[in-house]
Amino acid sequence: MSITATLDANELRSRAKRFASQHLEPVAAELDHLGEYPDTVMQALAEGGYLGMLTPVSHGGSGIDFIDYLDVIQTFSGNCAAVASLINQHCLVTSAIARWGSEEQKQSLLPALAEGSVIASCAVGESGPGPGPLPAALTATTQADEFVLKGCKAFVRNPGAQLLLICAARQTGTEHREQILALLETGSTGMQPGARVATMGLTACPVAPISFDGVSVNADAVLGSPAAGQAMADELLALSALMEAAQTVGIGMAAVACAAEHANRRVQFGQPVADLQAVQSLLAKVRTHCQLADDSLRQAARLVDADVPFTTQAAMLKSFLAEHGAQMLIDCCQIEGGFGVTESAPKGIREPLPLARMFRDIAGTTLLDAPWDFPEGIIARSISEPA
Amino acid sequence: MRTLNPEELAIAKTAQAFVAEHIIPRAVEFDQSGQFHAYLLEKAKPSRIFAMAVPQAYGGLGYSAMAQSLVLEAWGYGCAAMGTSLAASSLSLSAVLIAGTDEQKRRYFAPLVAGGMGAFALTEPGAGSDVAAGQTIASKTDSGYLLNGSKCWITNASVADVHVTFARTRAVGGSKALSAFIMDRHQPGLIHGDIEHKLGLRSSNTAFYRLKDAPFPAANLLGREGDGMRIALATLDVGRTGIAALAVGLAQRALDECVKFVQGRYPPHHYPGQSLQFKLADMQIQIEAARQALYHVADLRDSNQPFGAEAAISKTLATDTAMNISSRALTLMGSHGYSGEIAKLMRDAKVMQIYEGTNQVQRIVISRSVLATHPVCGSTQKEGA
Fold this sequence. Notes:
- The complex is a heterodimer.
- By secondary structure, chain A is an alpha+beta fold.
- Chain A contains eleven helices and ten strands.
- In chain A, β8 (267-268) and β9 form a beta hairpin.
- By secondary structure, chain B is an alpha+beta fold.
- Chain B is built from eleven helices and nine strands.
- Chain B has helices at 6-33, 39-44, 65-78, 80-99, 102-113, 228-264, 274-302, 308-338, 341-352, 359-373, 375-384; strands at 118-121, 137-140, 144-155, 162-168, 178-184, 190-195, 197-198, 206-217, 221-222.
- Classes of the chains: A alpha+beta, B alpha+beta.
- β10 (342-344) of chain A pairs antiparallel with β7 (197-198) of chain B.
């Protein structure tokens, strides 16, 4: 049964929970172990309508509110954060096309993306503390009435076949090296995916570089107006930060529940360790950070849904979770002690042991793959230049 | 700040050179395969580094606590998994140094001098922080003891030549029921269990084992019956310094990797902005504080002064720092970090906050010492409240 725009938030949440316990929870450890693209899960997601969540009803999706979308991502992330990454990448692209695409682009691309016959990913940010003064990794040069892309994107998530990619490239020959956003299909002439990169976690969401050697982008394949490229790229970065924040919060909430269960079961010094104040302090700290991030996330999502500026709010959340996100799992693993750093249960131990995987996954949702302007510069400037 | 004397500097340099030649080039390979780094024992054998804490009278290097810390700091910089093999081996021999007879020392130290390793088996499935809850039982026989029980998360368990293990010599009673024993790898009744698949320290051997009607001669008892808890706690005080040293090394490596990455993103002589500069500065501040706390404990040990609370402070500060710095460095390095060696450092750092006494247990030790030093403050506050 596919989700629709008419479902209320509670019904949507309980469906997402059912989907997660049926399709994600049973396979999450194996997907992580194998590190392969989860074809069967993606098929189930497509059938359930989860790939069209941010695609308008008019173009084949369910067009649910962003706040409800993030709720689904949180739920899924608690079970399998790698799958949530794949959905986020896909829906970031559908959202961008729905926002800024021409009617022709929407009609030709969105229905296939909503039904999952084409999967999408986003290569907007430059990776790491940069771009700094070094040359851009991917440039767009104007030739006649098209752009020619040259360079590479080092860490493209889910760079598989049948992929639609939004690529940000910096224009050469313009004063401020503005960005354009190009819509490209993998397999375009001159576009070459490289070998898969091994990542610490989120392993079912493959990552690889893609090189661009004179890839032609005609006007029809440019998203929005080239002059607005930078603003769009900034907004995509902020949207992406909110989507990743939903993953972080989802993992954190699930992890703290798991650690609390363990603490209630584990007896030391003649009592469940949950009765020790030191353990309660850790549980309380993690749960508080999750709650604060969740509240802030919902506030930002409401701004997105109201179509008002949300970049500062997204930057604050990014900054908060860069500080406290990975720490949630550092603390939850601490509560479980040896169990928290063991990846698979030895004979005779029946405990579920998802925390080590979550520890590796959550670190991948709080990376500062962004220019230094984001998040701190944006927040600082917003104080004297309110939006 | 503590500066190193020429002899200490020479030891540090030798260790760093060994690490650069034999550890750093192969650390990632062994982390990926999860196989035990057996090659390292052969490489380390000529230097007798696994006997660095063994007194010279028994054929060891007889290193000072300071020298041992410098070696472990270098190994932690290269690979915490490999460093843990050395630290755990040194930990086990500390128990024999503390409580062993001359004959026991000769027996235990000989394999280490020959290039082998030791293991220290205290943890049990139901006894982690609560050491007194151990269920391994030593029943008295005519010639000694029969041991039955399980040990888990024991570093070097499947690869050590000699072990120090613990069992209850009395069915009831908390801290006075525990006794310590030495055993070798061929102990009858020793059944090696599963090797764990771990988040970090993947090439370090960590395993379960079982003792089933395992006969121990009376000569294997360390100290007297009921001395086990005292021996364990005194040994762990020493062991904490070793973990602190590994953690300082790991933290420094994480910062160095981060700096290398940042420098690669900027042209020569071009500094990143203050946001990044200050984050790097904060990381170095934490690491240097942890290093100085470590050297302070080493100096206390070398001058035969009490060092229990200081060792707990040092272990907590260094391992929290290693976790914090590696996590922070990974976040700053973004996808480069998530797919690079810094990810291994972050995975390796986590268990350091847990093993050899969790950092919660360390805080109990530290707070007791704080409250004992300032008992009046508490009562004054109470009266004034």
